[in-house]
Structure formats: structure tokens, C-alpha cells
Design a protein that fits this description.
There is one protein chain. The chain is α+β, with helices and mostly antiparallel strands. It has two domains: 200 residues, no CATH class; 117 residues, Heat Shock Protein 90 (2-Layer Sandwich), CATH 3.30.565.10. 67% of the residues lie in helices and 8% in strands. The protein contains 14 helices and five strands. It has a five-stranded mixed sheet with strand order 1-2-3-5-4, with helices on one face. Strand 1, helix 13 and strand 2 form a beta-alpha-beta unit. Helix 3 crosses helix 5, helix 5 runs antiparallel to helix 8 and helix 8 runs antiparallel to helix 14. It is elongated and about 135 Å long. The two termini are 29 Å apart.
Amino acid sequence: MNGRTAPAHLNPTDPMAVAGTAVDDLHTTGPLRRELSRTARSALYLLLDLPLTVAAFCVAAIGVSGSLSILLAPLLLPGTGMALRALARVERGALGGLLGIRTEEPPYPAPLRDARDLREHVLHPQLWLDVVWALVGFLASLLTFTLVVTSGGLALSGVTAPLWLPFLRRLDGYRSSAEDLFGTGGFWPDLLVNLGLGAAGALLLWAVCRWIAPVQGHAAAVLLSGRATQDNLAASRRAHRASQQAELSGLQRLERDLHDGPQQQLVRLQMDLARARAAVDADPQRAGRMLDDASRLTRDTLGELRQLSRGIAPPVLVDRGLVEAVRERAASHPLPVAVTGRLGRRLPEHLETALYYAASEALANAAKHADAQHVRVSIGQRDGWAGLTVADDGRGGADPASGHGLAGLAQRLEGVYGRLTVDSPVGGPTRITAEVPLP
């Protein structure tokens, strides 16, 4: 063992990825070794790709031609799709392990359950993209396989010519290549001709691996992962727009709440203090009462400011994590709140902030709108997602479309590729679940 680890995007159980890592172990330093390593990996990809595409071509040809029959289509199409999906997964492993082309598995239709799902399978774009890859990939692989074998054979023949040429010249019927080409025979002219052919074969092999293999690989990647790339790009754009909209909505709401609440109270506080100051000499008792009122107004204003800041990450979230921050938020809630669960590790700050905001908003809704008696917050992670669920025993009927801050909460979660699930039948109970993907 040399202590090296496979790149994070490679599947260590994929034979293609393992083969690529093994070949890449030949590379240590230096441009020549890097070029040799890349050429070896590209040649291995072109050699292994032919049997793979032959299998895919046979599956596609049998499946598509047989599916022309109405009776055979329900049997052949699902099997064809599953077989092509498995072969395409191997091809994506080869692209990543041997050529370094990163790909993602695109969305495929759900397993066929009844006749109604057959239409989805037949019309699913990725199934037909896999079929196109099987047909085009077979023709391309046949050509490149022939080029690699021919050029590699010439190169190997030239390199080993000093070993086999003396024995070949002793055979009856031997015909001198140099004499046929230049009219001059002999061992050394024949050796030079074979060395020249070997150099030409090596140059052709290098050219095929240097330029044709990447073109073939990228073409396969477009067919097998193009839809996944488009879906990810669309999701990124939606998340970006949702994040911007959520931030804008949050700022507008905060500005409106500050204007309608604390700002008006501070103006009144300033006026009360001015009147109290003017009344100190003439009526000290009245001035004292005014100062008491100003003190109560100050406490109320501070409480309202704390309520407005519930969506802003508190110091405990940064210092001690999501669970402790939610516990602290629950401790100040007017209803009894039970917080259970834990996370295996700290999440990135933007994910913890999004989940904390979700918990704060859901707890605020439970206090204002649910008419509940008890609230429970469950925190945990599973299947690559971290999240929390806020459940109350109130009257239910919560709907993101009707406001209550749930629409903005959904936008905020979408901005970090998260999701919001609201289960709130009329009459209760209400369960609001916020989840974010684990990095």
C-alpha cells in the first residue's frame, strides 16, 4: 500500500475507478510520467469501452426492436431500461476513474408497478438518451478500439524488433521490408524500417489517446449525465432566486416591524422623558410617575426587539450549535416545549442558521395561531439529510399559501437546497418539518 486515497468523486467499489487509480499510481512527478499516465488511462478506457458498448448495443437493439410489439413492450422496456441504467453506471465510473470526467447519475423513472407507469417509462428522456449512447457509443468504440489495437501493435512491434527480427530473417520465405521499400535489404535496414513503423504507431496511439479519447468520453458524459447537469443548474438558479427573495422579504418585514413597533415606542419614550424632565421642579411626583411609565415602556421595547431578533442567529448557535440554540429559544416560549434528539456533528453555519430560523418561526406560529397546549421539537438526521420537526397539539390548518411566515420559511430553506413539509389538517395536530442536505 502506498497510502494514497482515491479522489472523493470516485466509487471505490467500481472496477473502472479502481483500474484508473491503479494506472494513475504509475505517475509520481514530471511531465513525461504525467503524459504516460494519462495516455495509459485513456488507452485502457478505449479498450474496455468496446465490450461495454457492445453489451449496451445488444440490450438496446433487442429491447427497442422487441418493444415494437404491443405484447412484448411491457416486458422488454422495463428490463431494457434497468440493464442500460446499470451499463451506463459502469460507463460513468470509467469516465471518472480513467478519464477524470466527473459525471452525475440523472433522474430515472420509478420502478414499473402497473400499466399506468409504462407510459412514463416509454417517454422518459433518459431512457432514450441511454439508447442513443448505446448505438453511437458502439460505433465510436469500434473505431477507437481498432485504432488503439493497430497503433499499439505497431508500437509494440517496433520496440521489440531487435528481439524477433533476427529469428524472422532465418525463416524461409522471409521478405525484407527495407528491400521492398528502398531496394536495399539487410538486418539494419529492416530494423530501421520496423523502428520507424513502431514510432509512427506510438505517435498515432498518443494522438488517439490525447485527443480522440476525451472527445468520446465527453460525448458519452453529455448523453449519460447531461440531464443531471441541467437539473442541478436549474436547482442552483432556483435556490439562488429563493435565497435572494427570502433575504429581501426578511429585510422588508424587519423594517416594517421596527417602524411599527420599537421605533414608535422609542419616539414616545423620548417625549415622555422630555416631559418628565420639564416636570421635575414643578411636580416631582408626576415626574416620578412619568419615569416609571418610561421604564416600563423601555422593558416592553426591549422585549419586542428580542422577538424581532428571533430569526437572527444568536451567539449560542455559533458557540454551542443548533440543539442548544433551539433549547434556549424553547425556554423563552410561552408554551411548554420539549426538545429531543441531537446531531452527530456540527453543520455549516448557513445550514444551522436556516434550521434555527425554521424552528423559531414554527414555535412563533404555535404560540400565535395554533391555540396549542404543548409543543415538541425533534432534531436528527437520516438518509443524507439533517432536520427538525416542530409538532403541536393545536387546531391545525396551517398552510404556507395563507401566510403565517411559512412561505418565507420555505423560500429560505430552498435557498440552501432544503425543503419544508407542512402536515396540518384542520383540527390538528400540526407537524412542520424543515430539512437541509448534509454536506
